[in-house]
Amino acid sequence: MKTKLAIVTGGAAGLGLAMSTKFVAAGIRTVMIGRNEAALKATAATLGELCSYKVLDLQKLDAIPACIAEIVNTFGQIDILINNAGINMKKDFLEVTDQDFYNIIQTNVLSVFAISREVSKVMVKQGQGAIVNISSMAAQYGIPKVIAYTAAKSAIEGMTKAMAVELSPLGIRVNCIAPGFIKTAMSSKALDNDPERKNKVLSRTPMGHLGLPEDVADTALYLSSDAAKYITGTILPVDGGNSIGF
Predict the structure, then answer these.
(1) Domain CATH for 168
(2) What InterPro entries would the database entry show (predicted)?
(3) pLDDT tens digit string along 167-217?
(4) Which of 53, 102, 141, 149 is catalytic?
(5) Is 230 a catalytic residue?
(6) What is the DSSP string of 16-67?
(7) 223 in a domain, yes or no?
């Protein structure tokens, strides 16, 4: 069987790293896209010959088409796109400036739209493909101090449905993962320094513990595989029940 080709944005850190690792382990050639060349290079070296990278600041929308063209010229195909890259900002609503809001939207929404459009052009010619977007619990219920991030991830969930309706008849499935509270270095530091917040998170999570990056990676692999060939337009929480907890 021909080796599949996956693109993972933000693929060298956090959830992206877990997904890149999982895809390579499954025998999928994986191209990571990100800004930090040192991290990308180190990750590619660790994961081996099936892993490579492209250095790109996804805020530079006009550079995305050329990046995707380079990947197609090199590998001849794109089977999977994981839209994982994103930024957050914690700030009181009344203090968020127009520029603050725009910066989050540009990276978390506009770049997802632009890269999905360019990759979809390739997938349409192939007659097949799978796109997996990454949302957040911020789109499932209200979380204070993340107004721009909440708006962005809510847009991602709406875009997932709209993309699925247009692209699925062309052979491209589009789905979305909404991670709950996942144990990463960043989240551990934040929660460990705020016992009240940590207790609130765990008390409303029926499974009673944080998830692991691998939990999200397993779901991304499933949604982009033939095992999910009749699934499109879904938003799947991977959250230990947090979004339905009380």
Answers:
(1) 3.40.50.720
(2) NAD(P)-bd_dom_sf, Sc_DH/Rdtase_CS, SDR_fam
(3) 999 999 999 999 999 998 777 877 888 889 899 999 999 999 999 999 999
(4) 149
(5) no
(6) HHHHHHHHHHTT-EEEEEES-HHHHHHHHHHH-TTEEEEE--TT-GGGHHHH
(7) yes
